[in-house]
Structures are given as structure tokens and as C-alpha cells.
Give the backbone structure.
Amino acid sequence: MSLLDILYSPECLHCKTLFQGKGTLCGQCLDTFSLLSAEGHCIKCFAEIPLVTGICKPCRKISHPFYHLASCFDAYGPARSIENVFSSGQTHLAKDIAAYFVIQIHELNFPQFGSIISVPNHMQNPHFRIAQEIAKLLSIPFQPVLRRNLKPYPAFSLKKKCNIINQIVLLVDTNMQTRNTMRKAAFALEQGLPEKIYGMTFCAS
């Protein structure tokens, strides 16, 4: 590798090694970077289950707003590194992250959505940009219809002029560390009378 290659080669976001070419991850890290399958996961909370498909025992006992909840990647390795770098302010990664969402949407045979909706946060953060980029790639509207209330935590409400009636909507977030947050956001969305609510995160819990 020449001096120019060293100076202008990108650094892998996960292992921090320099590599030739374009992208955010080196070839070795890309080899370990694979989308999660829907098989072996609960369709309501995406927890692992001893079945090819189905609903876990806890989800059978509670009301659930999601028709199907899924995630793109495990919450460790390259995906976690990308999420951490993005959350630290590298917002240009929104397009890359959104592309993985779209690939996973197609891999899981999710339907055509009427709107993309982001889980809001108390603090100013760039997470909504991922939802915007997903909407652009799918050529459908991004609707910031949820408001996050200060108390009780977490609590959400619909903004005025929300128009998701009879739509199949996709609620997105960066991770599933607190499934309760995703669930409460989806329950708030139900007040807008969508046909179905799907959910997806970049990283699983």
C-alpha cells in the first residue's frame, strides 16, 4: 500500500483498520455482517423462539400493536459500531443505514407501506433522518406524526393533522433495547386508525 493509499484509504468503522476501496466497513467485517432472518423470531417482539415462525409465550398474554416487528442486525459487531458512530453525529451514515432497512424490508417480504414513521426522542437527535432516507428510497411519505411526552416515560401521542387512516405504516428506530418504547409508540399510532403497523429497528436488543 502506497503513502497515498494510506492517506486516503477509509477506516473501517468497526475494526478501525484502513482498507482500499469505498464504504464504511472492510471486507473482513462485511463477511460477518448479515441480515437477520425472520425464522426463529417472534413476529410480535422479535425475541428468539424455538419455532420457525410464530409468537413467543409472553406476547401471547398481552395486547400487541404490531402486525410484525423485526430488526436488521444483531446488537453487536459492525451494526452496533455503525449505530454508535451515527448517533455520535456522523449523520451522513443515515443513507447507508436506510439502505439496509430497505433490503431487509424486501428480504422479509413486507408489504407496500403508506408512510414511514420514526420513534421520536426527548433530545434532539438525527434518528429521524434514517426514516426520511427510507421514505426517499421507497418513494413514500415520511410522516413525523408522533410526539414524545415528558411523563410518564415513555409516553407518546399523535400530533394534530395526522393522516394515517387505513394505511399500512412502518415504525422505525435505531435499536430495540427497550421493546416497551416501541410498543408504546405503536399503541399511540393506533389512535390514527392505520390498517396495520409494522416495526423495524437497525439493531436488535
User: Anything to note?
Assistant: Residues 34-203 form a domain with the Rossmann fold fold (CATH 3.40.50). The longest strand covers residues 168-175. Residues 1-8 have pLDDT under 50 and may be disordered. The first helix runs from residue 3 to 8.
